[in-house]
Specification:
Length: 107
């Protein structure tokens, strides 16, 4: 498990979350519902972690929508803060860039 991911799960359970403006734009562009993202975060798989990202620690997760389709979601926590959990962006991963399991980038 990841410390960042664990903290994000706790914050979401406490209702301490925010969807960034960019996140809303990307959700809408790919037809992803916030509800699907929130409902699947606890079962997510960690794809990549960015503990030293300049804006604060974040993690790329593989989640699923209500139909079981893959979604990549970047969740973060603002630098030097303990909350909120921020949905930074979300998108439907492209098989041209990702392996079939959507956990590894193609080389």
């Amino acid at each position: 498990m990841s410390g960042t991911y664990d903290q994000i799960l706790r914050l979401i359970k406490q209702g301490r979350l925010l969807v960034s403006e960019h996140g809303y734009d990307e959700l809408a562009a790919d037809g992803i519902f916030v509800r699907d993202v929130l409902c699947s975060v606890a079962e997510a798989a960690i794809v990549e972690e960015y503990p030293t990202y300049p804006k604060g620690p974040c993690v790329l997760l593989l989640q699923r929508d209500r139909n079981g389709n893959p979604i990549h979601v970047v969740w973060g926590i603002p630098k030097d803060r303990k909350s909120p959990a921020v949905l930074v962006t979300a998108y439907r991963p492209d098989l041209k860039r990702w392996e079939a399991d959507f956990l590894r980038r193609k080389k």
